[in-house]
Amino acid sequence: MTTSDFVAALQPNRAISAAAFRILVAAQAAVALLVWWFSPVEVLPKPGEVLAALGKLWTEQGLGRELGTSFWLNLQALALTAAISLALSYLTVLPLFRPLAAAVSKGRFLGLIGLTFVFTLMVGGGHALKLWLMVFGMTVFFVTTMAAEVTSIPRAAFDHARTLRMGEWQVVWDVVILGTADKAIEALRQNAAIGWMMLTMVEGISRSEGGIGAMLLNQNKHFRLPEVFAIQLLILTVGMTQDYAIGVFQRLVCPWAELTREKR
What we know:
Low-confidence stretches: none
Oligomer: single chain
Structural class: mainly alpha
CATH topology of the largest domain: MetI-like fold
Helix content: over 70%
Shape: flat
């Protein structure tokens, strides 16, 4: 890192090189690891204990199998959420569907625990209950984000499309759907993280299939902190990997979004 990069890092609204940013990330991660290692809190497990617990859970208690169960549930919920949310958000171009989208977005204030009985009556228990609880929990936020994106499209973009002799539904396809594709993938990326946060709760409600969330609750119940930290570390790693993969997909499918960010 050069002196100019170091000075820029301490000043607001300044840019630094990619190499300097990577050095900052590595340095801060190292500091965080040292603070964890030498923490005076005795009950806090050390990194070595967490890694040992992770190996034990993987080889003796089937952590890999439970992770696969949870990962598949997350993917299913993400696919259904994207399909429902994007359809409802894009349909807000029709006044008929705007009240419905607004009502769905208000669902983000509801707690899922109070809705468990309703969903049980609708879809039964087991896998279906976990899946649709996650879909509901993510859809209310996805619709809120994407409906706002559709609403914020400049009127000039619609007028420009009409000057090209496009019909109204073609305008919707080009301006609304294709024009917000990068925002849709970004919303998908954010909701994938929400899904991982919800896993422990939904897998605690229905434990018939197991899952990494159910395992985490079992270890937490018996106050096995090294195992709890190990599972949390694994969830963090898998979630960050998924987040990175969605980001790569976004750059491949919507390269213009990266160019727009660079101009800013």
